[in-house]
Fold:
Amino acid sequence: MRLRPAMPLAFAAVLFAGSIARAADPVPIRVGWVAPVANFASILLTKPELMRNQGKTYNLQPQHFASTPTMIPALAAGEIEIGSISYAAFANAIENAGMEDLRALADDFQDGVNGSYSDEIMVLKDSPIKTVEDLKGKVASSNGAGGAVDVALRVMLKKHGLEDKRDLSIVEVSLANQRAALASHKSDIVTTAIPFSKDPELRKIARTLFTQADAIGPSQMILWAARTGFIAKNRAALVDLLADTIRVRRFFTDPANHADAVKIAAEFSKQPATSLDSWLFTKDGDYYHDPDDRPNMKAFQANIDTQHEQGFLKATLDVSKYADLSLVDDAVRAVQSNQGN
Structure:
């Protein structure tokens, strides 16, 4: 029998070349988001020139969810790699879903920080409800049990001696349908969040009873979170994504780019630019967005402590143990080395 020693070597070379090609493939990174524009994941791809590493080291795939708590099972099942989740959903994922490997990576936005906007819990303008105590026997709507606004609602109710099912009813209504629920009297009070709370039609019929900051103080409302296994395996790609995210968020929040930012946001969200111009990405009309993508760890810890103090968590968490800020540190350095944004 004649031996053909070159064949195994040639076959090995093909396999090696294929492995290099596969290693160079962009890492798919599915990122969940809830509110258009407010969640940066929804609009990152509208600035492709700033997403320098998109399609090279990573492939961003934004995915829409009804609420932040619904991202937890998706993270657990590996259906998304990053969740834009509330501090409340983050804590519940660790305590109730056993996701001890979940890590906070970056800021998405903060509520009621440095004079920024705080989510409004609203009633009809002509409603007889003047105080929180007046909600007894009423129907309140929340966009999702365990979310940040939901926790703020329940904390405020509890502070005034009211509890769901015992003193009133809390029903789940998507953010997009809160105005309709209020207008039709299906709900006596609704929870809102940007951009829905800025809807001119809602503001014609509604007034604010209290804000999220009134209930829980400043909050690290939404942050990006991923699991340690994915972080360890794809750290370089995640740093590249965060660097690009910093470039995009700096563009949108720069007052010099306000007109362009409003135009892009209006086109993406299919809203009139006139309804966005007065507040979008402004200091006092919008949420606070950290320019370096850094989460507010002090507010984050205080939010978790409040959940525990009010009985929504069995135990508090040391958030420093559930955060990996080294990636955003490296991302900031990468942006700076490339002369910022």
Remarks:
- The chain is about 35% helix and 20% strand.
- The radius of gyration is 22 Å.
